[in-house]
Write a structure and sequence with these properties.
six-stranded mixed β-sheet, alpha/beta, single chain, globular
């Protein structure tokens, strides 16, 4: 397993957020974490990335417990893209180059520069190299955040609602980009989402959360009208269209 979460629990002094969460992710797999607002999806990613310290359970990466890793080692293994990536008044190139920080000892090497250039070409960002990130559109800024995470050359990518503030075209582009990156680089991705139909377009597995616990986990077979009703309290139909599943609210 590339990532294994075992019996994970997290709570604030007066609020239990995650309770006995358990799942695993293989290489080349995209896993979509689904559920209503406040169910613990973002907290789960922050526990995996050690931004928050969980009280019970374990998180391991390729057999190594995350608490056995230094902050630098963890940054080499995990790339994290938050809901709203904040960038200072810096160029696109420099913002992406920051992803190489865990590897840089004294100065930036030619290999670091070439890697960043290659990532920018892959994500169609080369034309914006010297532009200030804060002057980009929402979709372009999200690409820069993804590019910075890729510059870390991680084994695991964590995305917290990567399409939440994007228009339909950019939503599709970002989702397809994440899917292709995972397959091409043989890495794992865990993505929190609200849009079930978008999740159906790219994810290999799904985790449906309710009340801080995993309600259902598995492949497309778990996205039934019954499970969606139980998790979201919404009546839906799950239909086939062009050989793909589509979720239609009643």
């Amino acid at each position: 397993m590339n990532l294994e979460v075992t019996n994970l629990s997290f709570h604030y002094p007066s609020n239990q957020v995650l309770n006995d969460v358990k799942f695993s992710v293989n290489r080349s797999e995209c896993v979509a974490v689904l559920g209503t607002n406040g169910v613990g999806k973002s907290t789960l990613l922050k526990c995996i990335n050690r931004i928050l310290r969980y009280q019970e359970g374990d998180v391991s990466m390729c057999g190594d417990n995350i608490h056995s890793l230094s902050r630098n080692e963890l940054a080499k293994r995990v790339g994290y893209v938050s809901q709203s990536s904040n960038f200072s008044e810096t160029t696109v190139f420099d913002a992406i180059l920051l992803g190489r920080k865990p590897y840089i000892k004294w100065d930036v090497m030619d290999s670091d520069l070439k890697l960043v250039q290659g990532i920018m070409e892959r994500l169609s960002l080369s034309q914006y190299a010297m532009r200030t990130v804060t002057h980009l559109s929402g979709g372009e800024t999200q690409k820069v955040a993804i590019a910075r995470a890729l510059a870390q050359q991680p084994e695991i990518l964590l995305f917290d609602e990567p399409t939440s503030n994007l228009d339909l075209k950019n939503q599709l582009e970002v989702i397809e980009l994440i899917k292709s990156i995972v397959k091409e680089n043989n890495v794992s991705a865990v993505v929190t989402m609200h849009d079930l139909n978008l999740a159906l377009r790219f994810a290999d597995k799904f985790i449906m959360m309710k009340g801080g616990r995993i309600y259902a986990a598995g492949g497309h077979e778990i996205l039934t009208s019954e499970n969606i009703k139980a998790v979201y309290d919404v009546d839906v139909a799950v239909e086939q269209y062009n050989e793909k599943l589509v979720i239609i609210p009643h």
